[in-house]
Amino acid sequence: MQIYSMEGNTQRLDGGAMFGNCPRAVWEKWIPPDERNRIPLACRCLLVQEDPEPGKARGRNVLFESGVGVFFEPKLRERFGVQEDRHVLLESLAKLGVAAPDIDVVVLSHMHFDHVGGLLTAYREGASHELVFPNASYVVSERAFARAKSPHSRDRASFIPELPALLEKTGRLEIVSGTRSTILGPHYSFTFSDGHTPGLMLTRIEGWSAGPITFLGDLVPGAPWVHLPITMGYDRYPELLIEEKQTMLERIRQEHGWAFFTHDPATAASRIERDANGKYSAIDKRTALG
Fold first, then answer.
1. Which residues contact 147 (CB under 8 A, 6 or more apart)?
2. Could you list the mean pLDDT of each consecutive 10-residue stretch along the chain, which spans 290 residues?
3. Pairing outcome for strands 173-176 and 137-141
């Protein structure tokens, strides 16, 4: 298989919210804020192009998430700091010669709008939302899907109310609760996390020549968050998240694998190291894959 990092629409969000109880004097050295205290964030996706099976012209295109997209009306786009008014992910895919109908599977770590908004067509006044990947199957965890359908008041604004029904209507939605997916097959396995949101699904991908790579979603949104005490203000249970993060980073470190970051503006993936004091850090950083 071949693996590519795919850039989607970018955001600017409040740095204090993104770094939780970490003081600004510390986090601004990692990602400098603008005059409104906002930091730049990627909404990065991962594309796996599988080798073709015998007799087939191409292998499957498996897309991990779709970024925030451009489904918001202009007022909300400004509120949530979405920087572009066009569907950047579709442009990134087109550079590889991949059109929206060519996406075979979309895997969602969870259903917050900055990870699934790119599933929808660009905003048009008076028009209903439509899915942009007409032939794709969709894979999401049981608890993440349930949360999207019935959110808590604390995170209701993080979800797109119409999206669960649109996914169900395709007839190609797989809701998983175990470590494997029928649609994806044996090269993909899941770990679940609850510190950020219920049922966050982290996918480990085997078969890449550089080694296994784990799509970390919002468990570890970027290289600065590899440091265990650093969490987001958006995290549901920060202490639980730190424990989940430690377990995941240790596994990646021991297997000499790769961590994939969705929100880091400069780093798409890295390896993980731990020093003599037990501090984890990102090494061998890659700005892009592919």
1. 110, 111, 155, 159, 197, 198, 199
2. 98 97 97 97 98 92 98 96 97 98 98 98 94 98 98 95 98 97 97 98 97 98 98 97 98 98 98 97 98
3. parallel
